[in-house]
Amino acid sequence: DTEVTQTPKHLVMGMTNKKSLKCEQHMGHRAMYWYKQKAKKPPELMFVYSYEKLSINESVPSRFSPECPNSSLLNLHLHALQPEDSALYLCASSQDYPGHYEQYFGPGTRLTVT
Amino acid sequence: GENVEQHPSTLSVQEGDSAVIKCTYSDSASNYFPWYKQELGKRPQLIIDIRSNVGEKKDQRIAVTLNKTAKHFSLHITETQPEDSAVYFCAARGGYSSASKIIFGSGTRLSIRP
Fold first, then answer.
1. CA angle B32, B33, B37 (to 5 degrees)
2. In whole angstroms, what is the distance from residue A44 CA to residue A94 CA?
3. CB contact under 8 A, B89 and A43
4. Whether the predicted pLDDT of B96 surpasses 80
5. Chain A interface includes B46 (CB < 8 A)
6. Pairwise CB contact (< 8 Å): A107 & B42
7. Tens of pLDDT along B52-90?
8. Which residue among A78, B8, B82, B100 is the one 20 to 30 A from A29 at the CA level?
């Protein structure tokens, strides 16, 4: 299996809702990432997990809460979001050791906050 | 921190001609430089990458060059085809102080004219 999968594909939520985004990979990758991408912009790193531990948090607001239950799964819990949080949320994974830095992206979740 | 600049922001070339996209990076310790292609509504897809110990890499119609001294790298697409139309992102993996972190350039929208 050489693919990163994400669910749901689309999500519409109100500002008072709580929802979760899910990401899964079965490539044995040790690092998993959450990115946010606005239209016509590059992916913007939010969080990095390495060996199931949070290693990088790019000063993301606390209304975004990541979780890595095991080496294959990555979640992003959403609560009290703002309309400006509407974006494409991309998950990625990589081996992230010398000679194997390639990051592979999932298809993304298109999030709309109303 | 690491910064990656990408030029041009838009590029239109005649089908069959070559396209060149250029990037510069700021962190001299950067050791890995991937290029991603993103079609409208799709995930970023890794198309080619180069490591800091290599000056050039080629894969069919796509080639990447790296000049470590000048801290710049370029993507070359030869014999362009309509399916090459997409947004292309260069990226650089940070050096020792920012392991696991890949910084993206701002993107180049490539259009192939028939």
1. 140
2. 16
3. yes
4. no
5. yes
6. yes
7. 888 999 999 999 999 999 999 999 999 999 999 999 999
8. A78
The CA distance from B9 to the nearest CA of chain A, in Å, is 10
**CB atoms inside a 10 Å sphere around CB A9:** 9
Closest residue in A to B97 (Cα) is: A56
Interior/surface letters B55-81, b for 16+ CB within 10 angstroms, e for the rest: eeeeeeebbbbbebeebbbbbbbeebe
Q: Transcribe chain B into DSSP letters.
A: ---EEEE-SEEEEETTS-EEEEEEES-TT--EEEEEEE-TTS--EEEEEEETT-SEEEETTEEEEEETTTTEEEEEE-S--GGG-EEEEEEEE--GGGTT-EEE---EEEEEE-
How does pLDDT run across A65-106, given as a tens digit for each residue?
999 999 999 999 999 999 999 999 999 999 887 778 899 999
Largest CA distance in chain A: 44
CA nearest A32 in B: which residue?
B100
On whether the CB atoms of residues A68 and A54 are closer than 8 A, the answer is yes
Q: Which of A53, A101, A102, A110 to mutate to test the interface with B (most CBs of B within 10 A)?
A: A101
